[in-house]
Design goal:
- The chain has 2 domains: 3-95 and 192-207, Nucleotidyltransferase, domain 5 (2-Layer Sandwich); 96-186, 2-Layer Sandwich (Nucleotidyltransferase, domain 5).
- The radius of gyration is 18 Å and the shape is globular.
- The chain is 27% helix and 26% strand.
- By secondary structure, it is an alpha/beta fold.
- It has helices at residues 36-50, 70-87, 96-108, 157-160, 194-207, and strands at 3-8, 14-20, 23-30, 60-64, 91-94, 119-125, 130-136, 142-150, 165-168, 184-186.
- It contains 5 helices and 10 strands; from the N terminus they run βββαβαβαβββαββα.
- Strand 7 (130-136) and strand 8 (142-150) form a beta hairpin.
- The longest helix has 18 residues, at 70-87.
- The strands form 2 sheets. It has a 5-stranded mixed beta sheet, sandwiched between helices.
Length: 235
C-alpha cells in the first residue's frame, strides 16, 4: 500500500493526513482562519512522526487542487511540490469538490432511509452569493460540471425535480434560505478533510495518475483579483 502525505488547504480548513492505502495513520486539522502558512508544514512533520515514519518513507504527496481560496491553494500546492521535488516522489492532485462529496457519501452511508438516487452538492464560499460547486452521484461521479455559481431560487431546479440533493460546505450555509425546497437537504459540519482526500489519492496512485511537477498549478476556476490598497495615502 502506498504511503501518501495528504494536504488540504483549499478553504479555511487546514487538514494534513498520512495514509497507508485508504487507511489514515495520523491526521491534524485546524479551522482557524489564515493559519495555513504557519501550520501546514508543522502538521506534515507531526503526522509523519506520530505514525513512526520519516519523510523518506513517503511514496507520494497528494494535494487538494481546488477550486477554493487563492491563497490557501497556493500554500498547499507550494508545500506539496516542495516535498515532491526534494524527495523525488510523484505529486497527486485531487479535485476539492469531489473530495468533499466523498466525505458526504461516507457520512450518509448508514442512513436509515436513504433516497433512491441522491445527488451531492458541495459548496465553497466564493464571496457574496457566489459559490464554487458541482453535482456528484452516488458513485462520486461528477454529473454537473464544476462552476462558479451565483445562487438564486432557480438554482438546481432541473435536478431537484427528480433527485434529492444534499448540499454542504462553507458556501452552503448562506444559501439555505434561497434554496428552500423539500428535496434540498442541508448537511451540517461537513468540511474538506484529508480523510476523504486520501481515498481518491490512493486510487490515483494505483492508476499512475500523477502531475507534472514543473507545470502543475492549482485549479482556481476564477482569476485572482487583488483588492484595492487600504493604506492611507495610497489609491
Amino acid at each position: 500500500m502506498p504511503l501518501i502525505l495528504n494536504i488540504e488547504t483549499a478553504t479555511q480548513v487546514c487538514s494534513v493526513g498520512l495514509s497507508n492505502g485508504t487507511e489514515i495513520l495520523s491526521i491534524r486539522e485546524s479551522h482557524e482562519k489564515n493559519i495555513h502558512a504557519a501550520r501546514v508544514t508543522v502538521f506534515c512533520e507531526e503526522v509523519i512522526r506520530e505514525a513512526g515514519k520519516t519523510m523518506h518513507n513517503l511514496d507520494a504527496v497528494s494535494v487538494s487542487k481546488g477550486p477554493g481560496s487563492y491563497t490557501g491553494l497556493r500554500i498547499g500546492v507550494s508545500a506539496a511540490k516542495g516535498f515532491c521535488f526534494a524527495l523525488d516522489i510523484p505529486l497527486i492532485a485531487v479535485p476539492t469538490l469531489q473530495s468533499m462529496a466523498m466525505g458526504a457519501l461516507w457520512s450518509l452511508e448508514n442512513s436509515p432511509k436513504p433516497p433512491a438516487s441522491p445527488l451531492y452538492c458541495p459548496m465553497i464560499d466564493a464571496r457574496r452569493m457566489e459559490v464554487y460547486t458541482a453535482l456528484f452521484d452516488q458513485q462520486n461521479n461528477e454529473v454537473r460540471a464544476t462552476e462558479a455559481l451565483i445562487v438564486d431560487g432557480e438554482s438546481f431546479q432541473k435536478e431537484i425535480k427528480s433527485n434529492v440533493i444534499y448540499y454542504f460546505g462553507d458556501g452552503a450555509e448562506k444559501c439555505r434560505e434561497v434554496l428552500d425546497h423539500e428535496h434540498m437537504i442541508y448537511l451540517d459540519d461537513l468540511h474538506p478533510s484529508t480523510t476523504s482526500l486520501a481515498v481518491l489519492a490512493n486510487a490515483k496512485f494505483l492508476a499512475g495518475d500523477f502531475e507534472d511537477l514543473a507545470y502543475f498549478e492549482p485549479y482556481y476556476l476564477k482569476d485572482f483579483i487583488a483588492g484595492k490598497p487600504r493604506v492611507k495615502g495610497l489609491r
